[in-house]
Design brief:
heterotrimer, A alpha/beta (320), B alpha/beta (262), C mainly alpha (276), B: 262 residues, alpha/beta, Rossmann fold, six-stranded mixed beta sheet, four-stranded antiparallel beta sheet, 11 helices, 40% helix, C: 276 residues, mainly alpha, MetI-like fold, 74% helix
Chain lengths: 320, 262, 276
């Protein structure tokens, strides 16, 4: 679906296990394979505990996988250390979910947005005021916000500051962890418009964690669905409601409440509860709740297989 | 006569007028969704109906009439018999409303025993029955659990079970699904719809999620900065309203198969 | 800046005890002047154990030395050594606590186990053991008490660091390329400073007592140094017959400790009023 020469980040067989106090293993991410392309947004969708945040944190070196490799410009970032790691941080940045906790309460806005630049000696202290204004303008905020403190601003304004901070170093890739979930819906719209505009202008690849399928469909080029640490489906963002086929993806879709939906439609519920991540079944993770579960599903874990352009699914129903 | 009438209500915290001239009517068996963004006052209104305004909050003007009774003139004693029996409230995180160091069963039994004079065993059995009616299997196991041992969805169902114990005529729900996963939210919304179908309960749900508000509400009330700016039947609000704020909100909500930015 | 000054100056207790503390410090500084030129270590046995009179307003001790002069010069030793002690504990404790809280893992484990070991010992007993091993002197008394008291500051610093260690803004600072040094200095340390400064201020009094106690027991200042604690010790045998030998050094300790305790209390009220 995308040009392979635009491949920016290639995650292969990434697994993360956490040992628990009683000696068991919690598998937060299981054999994740994902690709991120230049200037494109990949939406990572799933419910709490599916491992989406855990995975994305590997990309900004806030955690390392137990197994697997993540290639960025051909080099495995999971093995980077010291000066090499520091140098590469310039190319991958992050926007956090909660605008009320993303900033040091004792720092002014101008110090916040210029901190990355000072860390890499891209500007001198005397240039902070001017550069801060420039960055604020990029995110459509008035220049005199530079002297304010974060708590004197609204949630939407703070999230714009977070975006300004993330683009300060002109990174190639930005992780956005539910970057609009804490915002009012009208504000969310303007922030998404800002993000997509910046993406177009600066050709930034984005990994966007989200739980709102309707939202992600509106601006992601590709969407990956995660369930209990596994990627169960990867599909094109546009028109995903039509092509989406994994039973869990369809269940997620069916759970979306929409102002344009059919209100007479009765809500279908997925039966059962998800198994404990400490005690995953041997086969497909969705086997105990899937309406189409077979013997094979319970024994053999399905692999992600390509079934169309830009469309992969991990389900025995679609692979023969 | 409507089941609930909120007439020209002003709500103030000390000298600050936070809700202005709120008007809302709810009929028996009707579901009304109050939507709005942060600061709209929607939670304040619903708490005023329940008589639960925190701190210096009070209804400074207007009337709230429930089934012919003026709620603003009730004594504490009268409120105690009304809450739970006639009007119940479900919060965003029912789990946090319970004592984390006590078994759910103990909290539930205590709740029941404040409303009627029955033995602990009978109250326990009643608790199990209500929990199972809310589609939580193995009610006894739930009763014997601590709140933190249950998932968010399970805790909300327990909260609903407790609220519905005496089959109140009016259920007030304050962002009951906002803290839940998408699939769990769907389950809880379905649960609420069934409450109306099986018990004829009237529901007011406060939410910032327009999709949920539209699905659940026969009637939708739109609030902005303390005022009701638009209200009407669902069909009207979604398709025929000319109110600019309503249209702005509807336009901003992402819909499947809707507008794309890329 | 003006708002800050007003915060301090408007607290009457702080001003009062601040002035008193300043007076005590000045007494120490100007001891030679205030003593009227009398040498605190000089005395003849002929003048031994004389009650207070015009010539020796606090009387003399068993070596014939003027107690008044000794009390004045004693302020120097007590204040200097106490401030040195508190400073050492503050710096070491805070540094180890911040490192422990920030890095976690084995760094945290090692530092905290060391701290646990030190806390497991009764403070004074360990201090005596150390002083006994290293030899009795004021310097070694300071080392001994510091060894036993740093864990308190380290634990406090560590828990203050842990409160912010896993916030989004700390992660954001790391992701945007902040060096470890910057994280420690600009993000972790500022969260600990206020509380630890208050602790240090309120500890001045008790640290002074500890040093005096060690000296009293013979493990701190050595004769003929005019240290209040050892003066108490020297006056012990004469408690009934020549009470002035203990009374005046005792009063000096009492007043100084109270003044610094109250100063610390008021400082806490200013910097951390929610504690009420």
């Amino acid at each position: 679906m995308f040009d392979e020469k635009d491949l920016l980040i290639d995650a292969r067989h990434v697994t993360r296990r956490f040992p628990t106090n009683d000696g068991r293993l919690l598998t937060a991410c299981d054999d994740i394979n994902l690709k991120f392309y230049k200037g494109k947004t990949l939406g990572l969708v799933g419910e709490s505990g599916c491992g989406k945040s855990t995975f994305m944190r590997f990309l900004v070196w806030l955690d390392s996988p137990t197994e697997g490799e993540i290639f960025f410009h051909g080099k495995d970032i999971t093995k980077m250390k010291g000066a090499e790691l520091h140098e590469n941080r310039q190319h991958i940045q992050m926007v956090f979910q909660d605008p009320s906790t993303s900033f040091n309460p004792k720092m002014k806005i101008k110090e916040i947005v210029c901190e990355p630049l000072l860390n890499f000696n891209r500007i001198s202290r005397s240039e902070v005021d001017a550069k801060a204004r420039e960055l604020l303008e990029l995110v459509e905020l008035p220049g005199d916000f530079a002297d304010r403190y974060p708590h004197n601003m609204s949630g939407g304004q703070r999230q714009r500051v977070a975006i300004a901070r993330a683009i300060a170093l002109e990174p190639e890739f930005i992780v956005m962890d539910e970057a609009t979930s804490a915002l009012d819906v009208s504000v969310q719209k303007t922030v998404i418009e800002l993000i997509t505009r910046l993406q177009r202008e600066k050709n930034i690849a984005i990994g966007f964690i989200c739980h709102d399928l309707g939202l992600i469909e509106s601006f992601a080029h590709q969407v990956a669905v995660m369930y209990l640490g596994n990627i169960v489906e990867v599909m094109p963002g546009e028109g995903l409601s039509d092509v989406c086929c994994h039973p869990y993806s369809r269940a997620l879709l069916a759970s979306v409440f929409d102002t344009k939906m059919d209100f007479t439609k009765k809500i279908e519920n997925i039966k059962g509860e998800p198994p404990s991540p400490l005690d995953l079944p041997p086969g497909c993770p969705f086997s105990n709740r899937c309406p189409n579960c077979t013997e094979r599903c319970m024994q053999e874990k399905p692999k992600l297989v390509e079934i169309g352009p830009g469309h992969e699914v991990a389900c025995h129903m679609f692979t023969k | 006569m409507s089941l609930l009438e909120i007439k020209n209500v002003d709500i103030s915290y000390g000298k600050n007028l936070t809700v202005k001239n709120c008007n809302l009517n709810l009929e028996k068996g009707e579901i009304c969704s109050i939507v709005g963004e942060s600061g709209s006052g929607k939670t304040t209104v619903i708490r005023a109906v329940m008589g639960l305004l925190p701190g210096a909050g009070r209804v400074s003007a207007g009337d709230i009439i429930y089934d012919g009774t003026d709620l603003l003139k009730l004594t504490r004693k009268q409120w105690r018999s009304l809450r739970g029996h006639d009007i119940s409230m479900i919060f965003q995180d029912s789990g946090a409303m319970m004592n984390q160091t006590r078994l759910i069963g103990d909290s539930y039994v205590e709740y029941i025993q404040t409303h009627e004079d029955i033995s602990k065993q009978d109250a326990w059995a009643k608790g199990i029955e209500m929990i199972e009616r809310m589609r939580l299997p193995d009610g006894d196991r739930i009763m014997r659990s601590y709140p933190f041992q249950l998932s968010g969805g399970q805790r909300q169902r327990v909260g609903i079970a407790m609220g519905m114990t005496y089959q109140p005529k009016l259920l007030l729900a304050d962002e009951p699904t906002s803290a839940l996963d998408v699939t769990t939210q769907a389950q809880i919304v379905r649960q609420f719809m069934e409450l109306r179908d099986e018990y004829g309960t009237s529901i007011i749900i406060v939410t910032h999620n327009l999709g949920v508000a539209a699905y659940m509400g026969d009637k939708i009330v739109v609030m902005k900065r303390g005022e009701v700016v638009d209200q009407g039947e669902r069909e009207y609000i979604l398709h025929r309203s000319t109110n600019p704020y309503t249209k702005l909100l509807l336009d901003a909500v992402p819909t499947l198969g809707g507008k794309r930015y890329v | 800046m003006d708002k800050k000054k007003n915060k301090f100056l408007s607290n009457k207790g702080f001003v009062l005890f601040g002035i008193l503390a300043l007076i005590i410090v000045l007494v120490a500084v100007f001891a030679p002047v205030l003593a009227g030129g009398i040498d605190p270590t000089a005395g003849s046995l002929a003048d031994a154990i004389m009650p207070p009179d015009a010539k020796h307003i606090f009387g003399t001790d068993k070596m014939g030395r003027d107690i008044y002069a000794r009390v004045l010069y004693g302020a120097r030793i007590s204040l200097a050594s106490t401030f040195a002690l508190v400073l050492v504990i503050f710096v070491i404790g805070t540094a180890l606590g911040v490192l422990s809280g920030y890095f976690g893992g084995w760094v945290d484990a090692v530092i905290m186990r060391l701290a646990d070991m030190m806390i497991a010992f009764p403070g004074l007993v360990l201090a005596i053991a150390v002083a006994g091993m290293l030899g009795a002197s004021m310097r070694n008394a300071i080392i001994a008490i510091a060894l036993v008291t740093w864990p308190k500051y380290a634990r406090m610093a560590r828990s203050l660091v842990l409160k912010v260690r896993h916030t989004d803004y700390v992660y954001a600072a790391i992701v945007t390329g902040s060096s470890t040094w910057r994280m420690l200095w600009k993000y972790m340390l500022p969260n600990t400073i206020t509380t630890l400064v208050i602790t240090a201020a309120t500890d001045i009094g008790s640290m002074m007592m500890e040093l005096a106690a060690l000296s009293f027991l013979g493990f701190g200042a050595q004769p003929p140094a005019p240290e209040w604690g050892s003066m108490l010790n020297e006056g012990r045998d004469f408690m009934q017959s020549a009470p002035w030998m203990m009374v005046y050094p005792g009063l000096a300790i009492f007043i100084t400790v109270v003044v610094f305790n109250m100063l610390g209390d008021n400082l806490r009220d200013i910097l951390d009023p929610r504690e009420e």
